[in-house]
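Worked example

This section walks through a single chain of length 210. The input is the sequence exactly as stored; nothing has been trimmed or padded.
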Amino acid sequence: MNKPKRQAIFERLQADNPDPTTELSYNTPFELLVAVILSAQATDKSVNKATQQLFPLANTPEKILALGVEGLKRYIRTIGLFNSKAKNIVETCRILIEEYGSEVPDTRKALERLPGVGRKTANVVLNTAFGQPTMAVDTHIFRVANRTRLAPGKTPLEVERKLLRYIPQPFLQDAHHWLILHGRYTCIARKPRCGSCVIEDLCEYRDKCI
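Given that input, the structure is written out below as tokens.
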């Protein structure tokens, strides 16, 4: 895919959605961190349902640490892998209190030291909470990047690096959200909704569903 086509794709995505953001509900970087940890192999909707009950009562490292693993499980048991996620979140809270003054760090290295936080989660937090131009490649972005030929790659890391290199600078901050939403609602896995796609004529997918 050439540079003018990539430019046109993001111009259209921006025009269609000028202020994209995550669909996870949060008010602070800490709430976002917890929500993103919970969202692994779970829908944003299911996470929001759980945090709607959790955050009014416990939305700081101290309060969740006080709940403990068993106490936290009661709020998140409807979410997949809730046992391991509860352990990771409580341990993350302990580390944040002891090493970071209860604040969420704003570097990848520090974030990836936290239990339950991998590269993708760190990228979401850096981008959404701290405004850093990162690219968290989930299944949606991986599919869109490969299907459209925007940034084809065999691994999430390869796709991430290509997107960061190919996306025009003015669009880099919001590109993560545009591509996720595009994959979630338009360029869906089984049968992409090409007929209602704003970038259909720019996309290089061979088997379009018109």
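What to look for: The mean pLDDT is 94.
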